[in-house]
Amino acid sequence: MIALLCAWSWPAASQAHDEAERLYDLIEQHDAKAFDLLLALAKDDDPQALAVLGFIYEHGVSVPRNAGQAIHYYAQACAQGGNYGCRNAAYFYEYGIGVAQDVGQARWYAQQTNTDGIDDLDELESLSRRIYDRKARAETDIGMRVRLIDFARSILSGLYDSEKAAMFRIGFGKRETLRLARVWAQDGDPVLNFMVGSFYNFGYSYVDNKNSEAFKWFSRAAAAGEPRSQNLLGLTYAEGLWGIQADPQLALQWYERAAQQGDQDALVNLGRIFYLGEIVPVDYERAISLFKQAAAKDSPRAARFLSWMYYNGQSVKTDCRKALQYRQIRRGERQDESSDATFWTTCKGDSYRRKNADQTLPVVTLQHKSTFSGGNDGGLACEPHFIASTNKLGEIANLRITVELRNDRGAATQRILAFSPFGLNTMDEDMNGREYNSFTSSTLVQMQTKEFCDFGPNYKILAATAAIHGHNVDLLAEGILKQ
C-alpha cells in the first residue's frame, strides 16, 4: 500500500518505514538509545518517525501518556505530505480525547489527508468514522479492543488497494494495526495475543523472523487458554514447523487442551493422531468420536476421515452409504447415492474381499526411497523417506520398524519408523482423493544433524511389529518383512 504514496519513491519509503519500526521495537523494550535515534529521525522531518512518536506518546510506550505530545507529533507528520498522522491528530479533537472536543479542528486535520490512490473519498470518510468510533469506545471499554482490531484486519485482508490505501492514511495500515494490537495484547487478552501472532504470520511486520515472532505470541495466547493458539502449537510440535523441533507428546497435549474447548481444527487434528497411529497406537474409537464432534461443527476435514472409516470398516461396520455421504459432504457435492457408481461398486467389492480375504499373512516390503535435504525452515539437516508396502488386501496398522543407520565412517544410530494404516482397500487414492497406491504408506525421519544423511543402502532392520487383520504380529519372527 505504501507504493501508492506520492511523497517518496518506493525504496526510500520502505527503508524509512522499516527503520522507524525497528527503533520502535527497541523502544518498546525500554532502549533509551533507540528513542534518541527516533527523535533524530523526527528532527529531519521523517513523517514515519514523527507518526511513531505520536503513537508512543498516545499509548505511553516507555514514556508517560501525553495527548498533547501525541497530537504535536501526529500534526508534524501530517504536515509532511498528508500521508501520516492527519486522521490520528483529528481523532483527539473529534472525540475529546485528552483535549477539549473541537469538531472544526478535527475536520481541518482530516482535510489534510493525502487522497492520492483512493478511488472513493466517501469510503475514506466511512472507514475513518467506523475505525475511530470503535477506538473511542475502546478508551473506556477494553472489550472493544478485539472488535476494533478484528475490523481493521477484515479490511486489510480485502482485495482492493484503494481500501488498503485508505486504511494506511487513516493510520491503520498493517504495521500500525499490529503495533496497536501488540500494545493492547500486553495486558494479557488471549484473543489479542492470538491476533498478534496471526499478523506476524500474514506479513504485517517488517521482521525477517516472522514465524518465531508468531510462535512467541501464539504461545502466550495458548498459555492463557486461547484454543486456536493451542491448536497451532499442537500443529507446530507435531510437524516441527517454524524452526521448532518436533515433539509429539507436546503436540498431543496442546491438541487435547484445544479439543476440550471444542476447537474444530483441534478435534480433527487430535482425531488424526489416533487414526494414523504414528505418535500413539491406533485408537479408531477415539478417532471417530472426535471426527463426529468436528463434523457436527461442519468440518469438511472431519467428513474426509469419516468417509474413509465407514468405507474401510474401522471401529464401525462398513457402510458404503455413509461413506459416500461423507465423501460428498467433504467435496461440497449434492448428496446423491447414484452420483458415484464407481465409488459405490468399489466400496462394496472391497468390503466383500476383506471378509473373504485369504487369512495367510501378507509380505511387507520396506524401501528407503530418497532423502530430502533440509526442512523445517533450516531446522533440519535432512529427512530420509521410507516406504512400506504390502502385497495383498488387508489392514496393516501400528507398523513400527526399528532400523540401524550406518554412515561411511562406521558410526551408527537407531530410529523407529512409524507408518499409518495401509492395505485397506483398492481405491488407489488417499483420503484427499488424490491418486495414491492404497497398498503403501510412507514416513519421513527428521535428522537434526548431517551425520547420518548419507547412509545410502547401509541400514539394518532390527525389529518390526504391526497389527495385521487386527492381530499383533512380529514381522521378523514370521519372516514376512523384505528389505
Automatic annotation (TrEMBL):
Pfam families: Sel1. InterPro entries: Sel1-like (IPR006597), Sel1_AlgK (IPR050767), TPR-like_helical_dom_sf (IPR011990). This is Tetratricopeptide repeat protein. Coiled coil: none annotated.
